Amino acid sequence: MLTYEGAVEWIHSRLRLGIKPGLQRMEHLLKELGQPHKTLKTIHIGGTNGKGSTVTYIRNVLEECGYTVGTFTSPYFEVFNERISTNGQPISDEKLTLLVERIKPIAEKMESSEWGAPSEFEIITAMSFVYFAEIDKVDFVLYEVGLGGRLDSTNIITPLLSIITSIGMDHMSFLGNTLAEIASEKAGIIKERVPVVSGVLQKGACAVIKQKAEEMESEVYQLGEAFFADRQSLLKTGEHFFYESSSQATTFEISMIGTHQIYNAAVAIKALEILQEIGQINCSQKEIKAGLMRAYWPGRMEKVSENPEVYMDGAHNPEGVKALVQTLKERFQHKKITVLFSALKDKQLKPMIEELEEAVDCIGFTSFQFPRVASSEELYHLSTHKKKINILEWESFIEDKLLLMDENEVLFITGSLYFLSEVKPVLMKKLENSRKNK
Predict the structure, then answer these.
(1) 51: phi > 0 → left, psi -120 to 50 → alpha, else beta; which?
(2) Which pLDDT band, with edges at 50, 70 and 90, does 76 fall under?
(3) Within 10 A of 245 (CB to CB), how many other CB atoms are there?
(4) Interval 308-324 mean pLDDT
(5) Which residue blocks in 71-164 are alpha helix, DSSP H?
(6) Burial 145-180 (b: 16+ CB within 10 A, else e)
(7) Which of 12, 34, 87, 194 has the largest count of CB atoms under 10 Å?
(8) Residue 1 has what pLDDT?
(9) 359-386 burial: b if 16+ Cβ within 10 Å, else e
């Protein structure tokens, strides 16, 4: 009998196999498991940025309408189990362990097969199919693509609807060096006669998606063509925006901040409209508005403290940093901004740092325990900011910063989501202690 710790350790041991694009192993693994994915009603969400936020908008609305919703997301932010969740509640340790006990012998047998052993991500994807189909049955599952789309293990599904949130320069060693090449990989999730909602903004990338959809005889609903979204006003803790499509013209409010979140929410609204039109859901306007307002996604412009003012944002690629900088300029131009930044070596570090430097008063660079992480020195030397700091101990830096900040200062902790997930529990404890000491 496996323990939970042993189960998670076994899953992580598959990391040694690396990223293994292709669907042959998934096909064989799922055949051995009885094809659980074929019984599920799924929505497939791909894109460079905005996947997690779009998932949470759709999930919260569907919950508000009375549906039970499974989500498969990555990476995890606070606990490993959250990658497989029902109505926002992560799979229990016991059920995760049971799933590993079921899949482990099949996976190990595959090591000597023509397909080879499944990777960590393939194992977790397969676990989610069994979980939602057999153990914790749900009305819908929202599947977030892990990497790319065409060869991602989640691409084994035939969804009710495909969504592509954005295209940007990330994971180029796997997906290609141009926006068109990356768009082609993302468009690989488009299935025959399955409608597609696109929040992609670049013309060239849009053309690639439309071409693929035409080949698959799938209708594309493009942001800026089939539906529109424009900010009406900045809310203290969110956005107020106007949304228009062939079905409606009305305003909505969300609690997440940033122009990019308006676009993510608009993509979610359009997806919900299509699900209504094809008879899969029945949601009122009141429920849609309530669900959107309730939606929250950790580590995405997340305000973790009011006084001192501290935010966490997983801006881990150039497009993510651009969105963060735009938000800083829109909302924090009268504040003194300090950024604490850490990232992985395989990211476009120089463009990200240059973009950040435009909008901040002080920028600190640090590192953390993770494979492929960039050192603080490496990041520091890429910066030309007048007030840059090489931070060897981020815990001490945060502790001191929280004590010294005045009401006109704001601290942003950003970069790798893996960094944010390591920082958050420590930060929350320090904030709690500083409140007690006041």
Answers:
(1) alpha
(2) confident
(3) 17
(4) 94
(5) 93-110, 120-130
(6) bbbbbbbbbbbbbebbbbbbbbbbbbbeeebbeebe
(7) 194
(8) 81
(9) bbebbbbbbbeeeebbebeebbebbebe
Is the CATH number of domain 302-436 3.90.190.20?
A: yes
b/e per residue, 410-426, with b = 16+ CB within 10 A?
Answer: bbbbbbbbbbbbbbbee
Give 169-212 pLDDT, tens digit per residue: 765 555 667 888 899 999 999 999 999 999 999 999 999 999 99
Query: CATH 3.90.190.20 spans which residues of the chain?
Result: 302-436
Q: Which residue has the tokens 């068109």?
A: 180
Listing from the earlier edge strand, what are the strands of the sheet with 336-342? 302-305, 309-313, 409-415, 336-342, 362-365, 388-390
Q: What is the DSSP letter of 374?
A: P
Write down the architecture of domain 4-294 according to CATH.
3-Layer(aba) Sandwich (3.40)
Q: Copy the structure tokens of residue 114.
A: 């023509």
Per-residue pLDDT tens for 280-315? 999 999 999 999 999 998 888 999 999 999 999 999
Candidates 428, 433, 431, 430; CA nearest to 78 is 428
The side-by-side arrangement of strands in the sheet containing 227-235 is 227-235, 238-245, 249-254
DSSP code, position 373: B
Are 34 and 153 spatial neighbours (Cβ–Cβ below 8 Å)? no
Q: Is the pLDDT of residue 389 over 90?
A: yes
Q: Which of 356, 355, 334 is nearest to 407 (CA)?
A: 334
Q: CB neighbours (10 Å) of residue 400?
A: 11
